[in-house]
Design a protein that fits this description.
heterodimer, A: mainly alpha, Rna Polymerase Sigma Factor, Chain: A, Arc Repressor Mutant, subunit A, 2 domains, about 75% helix, about 0% strand, globular, B: mainly alpha, rod-shaped
Chain lengths: ~180, ~280
């Protein structure tokens, strides 16, 4: 949104629904893709995230980058809560768990047949270790610098940068194996 | 062949963290920064750049499916258009359910107003105790209490029989032999002042004498009361049909002083219409 974000945010804080819709359309795709990488219930978590954003919108102070960092921090917290809730549920039997993971592997193998779409790349990034996948999504999709990402995930910027580099190297190998790359 | 036996250039990228494994870092940083890669970059780097551009690309239609829900939440929770965020916060603070500091004075004011209106209504109905009804009569114009209808015992209804009397009724005259001698500083000295404050300014025809200042030795308590205090005899304190001169009831031997601004009613100088107080 660039320089217009301040005005749009001010209008949204004043109750302008169109301004809020503008912010939503700009950031929802990135939010959803990030959540699809770190949690299975991405759509529900995105809805909860926006609900919390709306509730705290009048108290927010900052520019677009700060807003993005705030939005993805909320989303990460919601995902962590959902993960804790999942862990409290009864465990899934081993054979069922393996059966559930099978389609994901099949999807990754079938990526060669698809065009290089956002969904296909998200499917590949999901195969990365969680830490690497998350920092790549926050750095690339959320468009945050390594400092902001480090604050969100609670690591040093250097550690985040190293994890992101390792993730990209691993992603290149996965893409080559899956035949996504040309 | 162990690690240290190999040259970094021979096994690039094999040992992460070593110089050979970090040669692609500038290219990876260029991909993260979305800067164009140099033409001589490896093809896998170009593939990575394309993939990351795709994942950060424009929205797909199904990704905006939650817009209606988010807008509904916004319409429900966001402040109405035109209201500043600060005002909205303030309004939510007021509606937060806390018994705000501003609510207690309002409740107290409401209770006070209700009690006041009830008292006034009771005064107009005439169900208040006699003295209070008398006060209500003077202050708000409520009807006078009926004579002898005091709710209090006679001894309490007129605690100062030597002070208030009906001059025309001998039966109601006080028993001066039993009444204590009025002494400057006693309660008898003060209660007319209270009544004056309640009743307001002296009515026309009321006698008023200057009250000596405490510094005047003539009014100080003395073992010989007759020399320093007003005579308690009815003749001396009974109001005259004609306006009493300022010296009426003046202490014997006391130097006449100019009237004080707040000129208190002194015992015996209470006008007759005030003498109709309950018990008089």
């Amino acid at each position: 949104m660039g320089g217009a974000f301040g005005d749009i945010l001010a209008r949204a804080r004043a109750g302008d629904e169109a301004a809020f819709a503008c912010i939503f359309r700009d950031m929802q795709p990135a939010l959803l893709r990030y959540l699809r990488v770190i949690a299975p219930e991405a759509e529900d978590l995105a809805g909860e995230t926006w609900l919390q954003v709306v509730a705290g919108l009048t108290g927010f102070r900052g520019d677009e980058r700060a807003f993005r960092a705030w939005l993805f921090t909320i989303a990460r917290h919601r995902a962590a809560d959902a993960g804790r809730s999942r862990n409290r549920r009864p465990t899934v039997p081993l054979e069922l768990s393996e059966a559930m993971e099978q389609p994901a592997s099949a999807d990754a193998a079938d990526l060669a047949l698809e065009a290089v779409s956002a969904r296909a790349v998200v499917g590949l990034i999901k195969l990365l270790p969680r830490e690497q996948a998350e920092v790549i999504m926050l750095r690339v999709v959320a468009d945050l610098d390594f400092g902001d990402v480090a604050r969100i995930v609670g690591k040093t910027p250097g550690a985040v940068r190293v994890a992101a580099h390792r993730g990209l190297r691993r992603l290149a190998e996965l893409a080559e194996r899956a035949g996504v790359t040309q | 062949m162990s690690g240290p036996d190999a040259m970094h250039g021979e096994m690039p990228g094999f040992f992460p963290g070593r110089p050979g494994g970090e040669r692609d870092e500038p290219l990876l940083d260029m991909i993260f920064d979305r800067r164009p890669l140099p033409p001589g970059a490896p093809p896998e780097m170009h593939d990575l750049a394309r993939m990351l551009a795709a994942v950060a690309g424009p929205a797909e239609l199904e990704e905006l499916a939650g817009e209606a829900t988010a807008l509904a939440a916004f319409a429900r929770l966001a402040p109405p258009v035109g209201i500043s965020p600060a005002a909205s916060r303030s309004a939510r603070h007021r509606l937060s359910g806390r018994p705000g500091r501003a609510r207690l004075p309002m409740a107290a004011a409401l209770v006070t107003a209700a009690a006041g209106l009830g008292s006034i209504a009771a005064a107009y109905v005439g169900v208040l105790p006699g003295p209070i009804q008398q006060v209500a009569h003077v202050t708000v114009g409520a009807p006078l209490p009926p004579h002898g209808s005091s709710h209090r015992p006679a001894a309490l209804a007129n605690p100062h029989p030597s002070v208030i009397r009906d001059p025309g009724t001998a039966a109601t005259r006080p028993d001066h032999s039993a009444a204590p001698t009025p002494v400057h500083g006693s309660t008898e000295r003060h209660w007319p002042r209270h009544r004056m404050l309640v009743l307001g300014p002296a009515p026309a025809g009321a006698s008023c004498i200057p009250w000596p200042s405490p510094s005047q030795s003539a009014v100080k308590p003395s073992p010989t009361p007759s020399a320093v205090k007003p005579s308690p005899t009815p003749a001396a304190v009974k109001p005259s049909p004609t306006p009493s001169p300022p010296v009426t009831g003046a202490p014997a031997g006391a130097t006449q002083s100019p009237a004080l601004p707040d000129c208190p009613y002194i015992p015996g100088s209470v006008p007759t219409q005030v003498a109709g107080l309950p018990g008089s």
